[in-house]
Design brief:
Elements: H1 2-27, E1 44-46, E2 51-53, E3 60-61, H2 64-77, E4 85-93, E5 98-105, H3 111-124, E6 130-138, E7 141-149, E8 153-162, E9 167-175, H4 176-191, E10 194-195
Antiparallel strand pairs: 1-2, 2-10, 3-4, 4-5, 5-9, 6-7, 7-8, 8-9
């Protein structure tokens, strides 16, 4: 009888724990972005990550030479990080120096663990300015969004985890003087993010 009571308590505890987990999942709201087709460029597809999205209009893919240079600079900056970031593509608006980075992580641990480790190291650094954080669901992605406001620029960072546990980063970086003008453009671009079939390795 005593063993039965213990088992009953364990089962009730597990049920309550599962309910708590389900509640946490439900707390994430689904966001639907109003996409203005006049503010976005041509669709970009990455079969390695299994996504498509439309970068902002006039934010064009950079040359392969510039890509190599940026990759080298990022590698030097991330030598002390415990999570390896792999740059996939860069979109640049040369008129106003707005830029979008698409990156993945070296998959050495579960996606949520990678995200949490990345955030811990990010906040442990010397952060200038303020960061506003939010979490939401969008088109099958669990997204942690950070808006980092500094004197000279604003960065909108999206850490995205797909429902099949693939994780990637989208960073939109805008000089402060052009931020207000580009908010709707960036929102439209985020709104086009969808999941595609991944290329099998």
């Amino acid at each position: 009888m005593k063993l039965f009571k213990i088992l009953l308590i364990v089962l009730i505890s597990m049920a309550l724990l599962n309910c708590t987990k389900d509640k946490k999942k439900e707390e994430l709201k689904t966001l639907i972005f109003n996409v203005d087709s006049l503010l976005i460029g041509e669709q970009y597809t990455n079969t390695e990550i299994g996504i498509s999205f439309y970068p902002p209009k006039e934010w064009n893919q950079i040359s392969s030479d510039l890509m190599v240079s940026i990759e080298q600079s990022l590698q030097e900056m991330e030598d002390t990080s415990s999570v390896d970031i792999i740059l996939q593509n860069v979109f640049l608006n040369q008129k106003n120096s707005c830029i979008c980075f698409l990156s993945t992580f070296q998959k050495t641990m579960p996606a949520v663990k990678i995200r949490d480790t990345y955030l811990t190291e990010l906040y442990a650094g010397d952060i200038q300015g303020s960061i506003t954080e939010a979490s939401y669901l969008h088109n099958g992605f669990n997204i942690r969004q950070l808006i980092h406001v500094q004197d000279d620029q604003v960065t909108i960072k999206l850490i995205c985890i797909s429902d099949d546990e693939h994780i990637f980063l989208l960073d939109y970086i805008v000089p402060s003087q052009f931020y207000e003008h580009n908010i709707r453009t960036i929102e439209s671009s985020i709104g086009t993010l969808i999941k595609n079939k991944r290329r099998e390795n």
